[in-house]
Amino acid sequence: MEVELKELLSDLHSLKKSISDPSHLALIEKMHLHAENIATLEKSGTIRRSKVKDMSAEVVDSNPYSRLMALQRMGIVNNYERIREFSVAIVGIGGVGSVAAEMLTRCGIGRLLLYDYDKVELANMNRLFFRPEQVGMTKTDAAVQTLSEINPDVVLESYTLNITTVEGFDTFMSSLTNKSFRPTKSGSGVDLVLSCVDNYEARMVVNQACNELNQTWMESGVSEDAVSGHIQLLIPGETACFACVPPLVVASGIDERTLKREGVCAASLPTTMGVVAGLLVQNTLKYLLKFGQVSRYLGYNALKDYFPTMEMKPNSQCSNAACLERQKEYILAKPTRDAAAKAKADIEAVSPAENPVHADNEWNISVVDDEEVDGSDVKNSGICVLPEGIVHELPVADDYPKAPVTETVGPADDLEELRRQLEALNAD
Amino acid sequence: MEGWDPSTKSTLTQIPLLTIKAGPRDGAAWTQRLKEEYKALIAYTSMNKSKDNDWFRISAANPEGTRWKGKCWYVHNLLKYEFDLQFDIPVTYPATAPELELPELDGKTEKMYRGGKICLTVHFKPLWAKNCPRFGIAHALCLGLAPWLAAEIPVLVDSGMIKHKDDVATSSES
Ligand SMILES: [Zn+2]
Fold it and tell me: Where is the active site (chain B) (predicted)?
């Protein structure tokens, strides 16, 4: 290809010189330019950086990790290179998930597991990451294509499936428990699950899987009107699970009745999705590399640039059985936790931290404290006090009298008989 | 029940409510739930037929009863428009409702998610959540699909996005 292009360029060059009719000159110039463009594209397509064995902190323009390793030199992160040990599963490779995947790839994450069943469409082009020439590819395949070019060091696994179906869920669970990447890791095969899906049903499925596997995960979401979003950390047994409290949304401040929903399902903006992906991956890096404060819940209201935060305790009446089991385990483990916390405090008392943290609020900027938001607008959900601007998206299931389980075996209670009855109705 | 028309409301109240909170991964409890699903579907289908308002056919597509297939139709200007209907019972059912799919209409309307999943009104999910586990497949069809067809099919027909099968046949013959 490269040789052919060189030949074409030299042929065009000699043609330009030998031509007698000047009216053809513009056309030949144009052809020459096209050929040159193809040559450039061809070149950029073939240059792929090779894998890097160890992350180096050396500041040279050929080192893809120098600016990240600088975080370690500055004392922000203790051991940046640990990032290569971590596996992160991203569920939903849409406007938020794809950008989160790119950020983690550029950070040099060890392994990414990508889940989506959708294909890239032109309608996705108002968002970041996917390119028009990828239209028609599955989002997982297109993501692997781009991400492996950006950073070949990252181990990428793609799963083109719908996690809400019974088969999809089984594959989802077994992929999360596979420990071949780091056999010595305790718990599941991944360090964190990021939920970047766009619907309640899929979030409930991620919640189910993570409760069963005792897997810490982070939730993210952008509202259907595209002007608010949130991220949330969920630690089974320790924090509220996704089913403990009805889902929360950051109120956009727009009166719902004035919001024109007719005719469309959802709006989207690359900005809001980019902001939420950034918040999500920032929290992920802090959680994995143990620096700064990991947010439990962080909301984003784009219209007012308001970022509410809060914490949510698990609900002892949660409808999710696996959540209740994790809550029990968490309570039983309290003595161990307390002992570990005490030991840590003792060590810190002896040797003060080497990198003193900047005094809080150096410039006397007044910030809204969590405690300050317990004003008249606060709605108490029983589990947590909701800060202003956060509302429940769905109601709690009504209490209903549980019918006594009566095992009446008869023609009306036989599954096959019922199936036949419905088919008979369907037949005419 | 704000936001629902009176006929949907009255139909809904006549569909038997379910009692067992069990999903496809709950073994024997799911079988019990499945029996309740059948009873509700049988009652709803019979009721529709007796009112001369028969509008769907649905059957389990696998022995576990986790995948369902069938047809639904809507009459507009005296013409009947029929579509394939399918859905999976999600692993978190009945906490979350099944996502009803009309694959033939995928990409033809804004009120649809990818894969032909219909976009439900803002009223559906809160009502479903409030009534878990009493609502089942029959309720999802009554509250989700019936109003969707009534709102969307006339628009799709009038805008020419969908054609009646007789029109398609004549135009392809000519
Ligand atoms: Zn819970």
Answer: 119 (glycyl thioester intermediate)
